[in-house]
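Weekly sync notes, structure subgroup
Attendees: PM, AL, DS (notes)

Item 1: joint prediction request from the bench team. They want all two components modeled as one assembly rather than separately. Inputs as received:
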Amino acid sequence: MTREPATLDVPLVELVDRLLNRGVVLTGELTISVAGVDLIYLGLSVVLSSVDTIRRAGAEV
Amino acid sequence: MLLRAIVAPDDATVGDDLGLTTVSGAAVAALGSPWDKGRVAGEPDLLDHHRIIQSVFERVPCLPARFGSVFPDEDALHSRLVKREVDFASQLARLGHRCELAITCAWRDNGVSSPVSIVPASSGRAYLERGLQRSRGDREREVRAEAIAARLRTELATEPAFVRHRTCPRPAVAVSMSALVTRDEINGISSRLERVGAQLPDVTIVVQGPWAPYTFAVSK
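Output from the run, pasted for the record:
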């Protein structure tokens, strides 16, 4: 199981997807404002799988 | 207060060791960190969340919290916790001693084996044919990804409920799979996946973990 250039972004995206989309939730105030998530999104640049989360966050804030 | 993880009451002292705040219920305890109201989260906060959860998970069984649950104070967290603690205790008993492996199959061509020209189509017919070509390519990728996922599931040889996967979640990825395993299974699984990876010419398999069971800890 080697890592090739095409897969370099995979580990981080897979982790971020789980941090934002999985795990138990106790409904508290959602801290990820649209602007905040945009910052995360831009910072990681490839968090494509979390776009739905971003949209949900935007709808709930 | 930002929720990090849920642990059994008897394990709550791990919070003290890690500098976390503990909010105890009767059946479970919540571990959290101070978080200023209105603070905007950034990439470091997200990765810190993972590091803290991993620190807890390496010491005691836990349910990882999805990033973003903030409460004004410990009382607010406690009132939410007690409403859900029976469910959380049940999940801890079921998942706590298992860990998650993230198995990702990335297309070796980065998902662009049949790039569609960026030059504008010269006619309506050319436009439609290009769309048809793209659609056909997507379907072929999906079929191939499902076949790869089936092969991985066979190799994992674990209960179906302990494996979840998505095919083609992103252009560069064929399969994103999560497997719930015990720690003593990890080496054997890694060896089998490595063997499978050598037989799949079109994808590269990346295995990450063991992580806390993010994918299998759910809120009903």
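Discussion: Strands of chain B lie at 2-7, 21-24, 29-33, 63-64, 69-70, 99-107, 163-170, 173-181, 203-211.
Action: AL to compare against the crosslinking data before next sync.
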